[in-house]
Amino acid sequence: MTVASPSRVTLAFTGASGAPYGLRLLQCLLQANCEVFVILSKAARIVIGTETELSLPAGTGAAEKALRDWVATDRGRLVVCGLEQWTAPVASGSGAPAAMVVCPCSTGTLSAIACGASDNLIERAADVAIKEGRKLILVPRETPFSAIHLENMLKLSRLGVTIMPAAPGFYHGPQSVDDLVDFMVARLLDHLGVAQTLVKRWGE
């Protein structure tokens, strides 16, 4: 199935475990020639350094270069936004992309989005997506979920937010951790309308 690719996507990384999911998604979006606005929480930088060999330097320009080198593609456009860069396009309904993904999404960020906190650019960009009726996908990675987590997810789901926990399947016969990562990334790309060949769909 081939579908039109969105031209602009906001991709936020938070402090939940699961940095490889977000990095692989970034690579696939750039390979699809998307313009990707990346926002990194302070905890996300620590998690990325813990779960991968990527160490992100301070400063948006240096972080852009490090991410570009890591995903190893010169396609698409990559823009790293500061966590308090309120002039970034993603902070306004008149400038934000039509789709946003928080991957991975910490339960703290999920809670802040659910209550409309908007205390940093990740929360503000998500608030914009909700108020403008645009696609917002959250990828929580936590276990077990408490009643508080589940209530926040239900609240957001009722507002039209897609809740997609990082829970890879096994029916595609994964042979490696990368295969499990690709399963989740393929599902995210499907929901974003980006053509993907990472994992065959059920029945294919």
UniProtKB/TrEMBL annotation:
Question: Which catalysed reactions does the entry list for this protein?
Answer: dimethylallyl phosphate + FMNH2 = prenylated FMNH2 + phosphate
Q: Does the keyword Transcription regulation belong to this entry?
A: no
Where is dimethylallyl phosphate annotated to bind?
Answer: Y171, R187
The Flavoprotein domain is annotated at 8-192
Q: Which Pfam families match?
A: Flavoprotein
A GO molecular function term, named singly, is: carboxy-lyase activity
| InterPro entries according to UniProt | Flavin_trans-like, Flavoprotein, UbiX-like
- What role does this protein play? Flavin prenyltransferase that catalyzes the synthesis of the prenylated FMN cofactor (prenyl-FMN) for 4-hydroxy-3-polyprenylbenzoic acid decarboxylase UbiD. The prenyltransferase is metal-independent and links a dimethylallyl moiety from dimethylallyl monophosphate (DMAP) to the flavin N5 and C6 atoms of FMN.
Q: Which protein family is it in?
A: Belongs to the UbiX/PAD1 family.
> What PANTHER family does the entry give?
FLAVIN PRENYLTRANSFERASE, FLAVIN PRENYLTRANSFERASE PAD1, MITOCHONDRIAL
Q: What is this protein's record name?
A: Flavin prenyltransferase UbiX
Species annotation? Alcanivorax hongdengensis A-11-3
